[in-house]
Amino acid sequence: MALVTTKEMFEKALKGGYAVGAFNVNNMETIQGIVEAAKEESSPLILQVSAGARRYANSIYLKKLVEAAVEESGLDMVLHLDHGDSFEICRQCIEDGFTSVMYDGSKYTFEENIAMTREVVDYAHPRGVVVEAELGTLAGIEDDVMVGEKEATFTDPEKAREFVERTGVDSLAVAIGTSHGAYKFKGEAKLDFARLAKISEMIPDTPLVLHGASSVMPEYVAQCNAYGGKLKDAKGVPEEMLRRAAEGNICKINIDTDIRMAVTAEVRKFLVENPEEFDPRQYLKRGRQAVQKIVQHKMKDVLGCSGKA
């Protein structure tokens, strides 16, 4: 099997009314847990690398780990750059063998975003790489970069159509009320499904992407806090809302915080209950098991992509 692009995955997801999970990876245990879940669920899979992951582990190490996962698992999977903020970063990842890149020009003006996204598309497509872009701005924290609620902007459906036509992107990340990090909502959780429907109507053949879509599952928050954590008022996107989005034109749902939360909850519990233990293999094994468990749950019960590989 091999590293592949999202093209066929998204075509099937659009027709089938489900979404493919895009899971952020930072180390070996995370990759192993996610891939084992995909094997068990026979699910299509996107592994994505953020700027923070590249700083932490180096993209070459991560790429080699993903290549090992392909060889060991026998699965096709996508290696995706998450939130590339420059042409140079996108170019480097394409040269390193990534099969999908995201250029995030959402902080720029509409015209600047179009121009820079088009530059990435023109470089990527001749090399067989697909491109995701973003229109609209999510609130929250992404790799230590904070975007306040006042700076967040929802995606304009009319501009979404123009953006896709002028850039030629393969998929589009939209802003409909999700946000990055573990503190997504202060009050009631709300997503603008009317806006999503309008965007889907304007660009019906374009796969849409939902960022900031972790659910920050209460049981893991409670477990973290029970074993010394201080995650007050952490709240994510309810899973029933994600399932509803996946039944429409949302073909890719990004999940990162949920994985971090599951790992931290299990490692905290293990270390408190086993204070004499100092072997990282023992507590990281528990973290890896937690990753597999939560990813299988997402694939089967939320994304609807089990059995779709």
Textual characterization of the structure:
This protein has helices spanning 7-16, 28-41, 51-57, 59-73, 87-95, 110-124, 157-167, 193-202, 218-226, 239-246, 257-273, 280-303; strands spanning 20-24, 46-49, 78-84, 100-103, 130-135, 139-142, 145-147, 171-174, 179-180, 208-210, 250-255. The chain has 309 residues and is an alpha/beta fold. The strands form two sheets. An eight-stranded parallel barrel has the order 1-2-3-4-5-8-10-11, surrounded by ten helices. Strands 7-6-9 form a three-stranded mixed sheet, with no helix packed on it. Helix 2 (28-41) runs parallel beside helix 4 (59-73), helix 9 (218-226) runs parallel beside helix 11 (257-273) and helix 11 (257-273) runs antiparallel to helix 12. It is globular, with a radius of gyration of 18 Å. Dihydroxyacetone phosphate binds at residues 181, 212-214, 254-257. Pfam families: F_bP_aldolase. Catalyzes the aldol condensation of dihydroxyacetone phosphate (DHAP or glycerone-phosphate) with glyceraldehyde 3-phosphate (G3P) to form fructose 1,6-bisphosphate (FBP) in gluconeogenesis and the reverse reaction in glycolysis. Its EC number is 4.1.2.13. This is Fructose-bisphosphate aldolase.
